[in-house]
Write a structure and sequence with these properties.
With about 140 residues, this protein is α+β, with helices and mostly antiparallel strands. Helices cover about 40% and strands about 30% of the residues.
Length: about 140
């Protein structure tokens, strides 16, 4: 799982990476930041991940920043070098934030104010799907 940041090059990276089948999933980071992006990806796929807040960032900034031009991309290990070379060819910064865990049904995030948190994907799905009906009937 990678967190991508840059200006207009993001679209070029996503289009080229998709055409070359360098990643198995991608999702833009927007409302709700990476926290919402990761939750949506996990709920859609039913697959867990192990992540860590990058060094030098506080958990709040990492999880909920809504800064523009970012995406989370899932790159298979055997495509990692090709994907990194593509990003480097465009001078596109990339930060590895974790790994998909196909045996897990949760998102585990280390480095959250000194703690590791674990969020069950099914519990996230229930909360997400029940919120509006509960509020509006």
């Amino acid at each position: 799982v990678l967190n991508l940041q840059a200006e207009m090059t993001l679209a070029e990276i996503l289009v080229a990476g998709s055409a070359e089948q360098l990643f198995s999933a991608a999702h833009d980071v927007s409302e709700g930041g990476i926290a919402q992006t990761l939750a949506e990806m996990a709920m859609r796929s039913g697959v867990g991940a192990r992540l860590e807040v990058p060094a030098g960032l506080d958990a709040f900034t990492f999880l909920w920043s809504e800064s523009a031009t970012r995406a989370v991309v899932v790159v298979p290990q055997n495509k990692n070098d090709e994907f990194l070379a593509l990003c480097e060819s465009k001078s596109f910064p990339v930060t590895k934030v974790g790994a998909v865990d196909s045996l897990s049904k949760s998102i585990q995030l280390a480095g959250v104010f000194g703690e590791t948190i674990s969020l069950d994907i099914e519990e996230l799905r229930v909360v997400s799907e029940e919120t509006l009906p509960r509020l509006f009937g």
